[in-house]
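Field notebook, page 386. I keep forgetting to write these up properly, so this time I am using the form the group agreed on. The chain and the ligand, adenosine-5'-triphosphate, are recorded exactly as supplied. Prediction of the bound pose follows.
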Amino acid sequence: MSCFSFIFKRKKSSVDESFLNAEGIQNVTLYSYKELKLATEDFSSLNRIGEGGFGSVYKGRLRDGKSVAVKVLSSESRQGVREFLSELRTISNITHDNLVELYGCCVEGNSRILVYNYLPNNSLAQTLLGNGCSDLQFSWRTRTKICIGIARGLAFLHEVVKPHVVHRDIKASNVLLDEHLNPKISDFGLAKLFPPNATHVSTRVAGTIGYLAPEYAMGGQLTRKADIYSFGILLMEIVSGRCNTNKRLPVEDQFLLERIWTLHERNELVLIVDPDLNGDFDAEEACRYLKVGLLCTQDAPKCRPSMSTVVKMLTGEQKVDMECMAKPGLIADFMDLKIRTQKKVEDAALAYTSSSGLSAHDNSPLSSENTTYASFTFTAISDRGD
Ligand SMILES: Nc1ncnc2c1ncn2[C@@H]1O[C@H](COP(=O)(O)OP(=O)(O)OP(=O)(O)O)[C@@H](O)[C@H]1O
Ligand SMILES: [Mg+2]
């Protein structure tokens, strides 16, 4: 009998600190369910700050006064204690200024709860892209700081952490903001806490379709280059202040990436910069950022720059090389996929409507029609080395 099963039996599916240490999980506090229940006032709906595909998120205050975000993973994530902790190990020791800090977890009975540093200024999806729901102002300087910060956080996950971490879900709702509007990437490594065939994964990907690299959406190839594609889309959203897809706009304007490519060809990129800036921005820099976005979203993954190169291009340390720039992997490709997979879409739509968990704060005006075919492709994901 392994050491694990001995402890497992004795503790009836809860774990203790020495077990965490034995599993190689450091810097993570083990919270009791009771403690988190108290911190969130019995997981009161008043303290619920969001709901994503992984489950509900509550604001809480620990006994020592620390504010925390308590993410209660949904029932589909009830994988075994060992599997859960094994995946937790990959994220528990990762710390960086631009990554949300994981304080600890709770593993008791069927509960799987993650406890994070609480970020007071919400996510980019709810603030910058939140259709006037927030009072926060995003000056051009603040936007450059946010873009560079996200790029640095992602470069760290991709190139410094060993083995490297592919985020899988870079998007505006996964960029949280601290009191000084510094960006912190959330949910890195989280997809791996779920069994690959869990149904909630479909709903999680549902809000994300506009960020999916073509090779990921169509072939299930998940590499760092897929994250870089998503980052490129996010970069364009930050510069333009617009969601990547908006079905309420005229047809030629609905897909941000398509629009930006057209403007690039006409040498009119500056026209897409957020009008809320009232012209108060560095036009040369803003166009450079958009060009970096176009490079990141190239159809061929090998043509996308690495994240460390992206950081240098954004900070101006490296020239944005436009020589081999081709048309990016466009939404039109998804439309082709949609036609080819019509039947599967209809089947998935059924599953979609019977499931819950789509973020209550998702501002993306995507229809459920768009969202369902992403779910079927997600099941085919494989991690690859590059
Ligand atoms: N550490 C945190 N501090 C403050 N608010 C947070 C924190 N983590 C999450 N939230 C809030 O909870 C909301 C839901 O987060 P969650 O990650 O569950 O869903 P999501 O990001 O919208 O979608 P997905 O499940 O695809 O990641 C976020 O949009 C954010 O407003
Ligand atoms: Mg999230």
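OBSERVATIONS:
- The longest helix spans residues 140-160.
- Residues 292 and 373 are 28 Å apart (CA to CA).
FOLLOW-UP: compare against the apo run.
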